[in-house]
Amino acid sequence: MTSFPEMCQRIVDTGDSDFLKSHLDSPDPRERMFAILVVQRLKLYQYVPQLRNFLKSSFDGDIADSIVALSTLEDREAYPEIIKFASYPNPEVRSTVPFAIRKLGGEADRAILIRLSRDGDYDTRLNALDVLKFLDEALLQ
Description:
The protein is mainly α. It has helices at residues 4-14, 17-24, 29-42, 48-54, 60-72, 79-83, 91-94, 97-104, 110-116, 122-140. Helix 4 (48-54) packs antiparallel against helix 5 (60-72). It is elongated. The protein starts with a helix and ends with a helix.
């Protein structure tokens, strides 16, 4: 299996899109995770449609990684689908929604953040509170 740094370096050095696509399509969740991170880190916008497809995945890790990547890439088109994950059963996925709100949403999503700040999952609560603080600080400036 190719490591994340190796994958990044190969894409940077060669621009080998078939290599990256094969990892995005891999049956191995770890390879998909690395490929999603490469897309995010290198800002490879041409893979946004494939990242959107991961939002329909049966593997929660793909969903969580794609939410973060799509948010980092500021894909506003995916935001209505992403925000639905605020009620997702798996906290690994729910905890990524505040990051998406910070990057793509904003003040209009305060009620969702308040609900997530009371979530049973510590990371989800912490992430929601962090974004609420960010929004409050932005209002004070």
